[in-house]
């Protein structure tokens, strides 16, 4: 993972979720599609500020 505050791709966001929550998110895909980005956003929102 990079040290930038910007998520560079969906793999980095998934790894961040799994690391901070201590659970696997197998339902999330790493493909750069709009649907996958929206699913990732949905999972990230409860843990953001």
Secondary structure layout:
Blueprint: H1 10-21, H2 34-44
Helix pairs in contact: 1-2
Description of the molecule:
The chain contains two helices and no strands. With 49 residues, the protein is mostly helical. The protein has one domain. The model has no long low-confidence stretch (mean pLDDT 84).
Q: How many helices does DSSP assign?
A: 2
Give the structural class: mainly alpha
Helix content range of the residues, please?
40-55%
Low-confidence runs? none
Which sequence of SSEs, written as H and E, runs from N to C? HH
Strand content: under 5%
| Overall mean confidence score, pLDDT | 84
Radius of gyration: 10 Å
Quick rundown:
With 49 residues, the protein is an all-alpha fold. It is 47% helix and 0% strand. α1 packs parallel to α2 (34-44).
For this entry, give a set of tags.
mainly alpha; single chain; 49 residues; globular; 47% helix
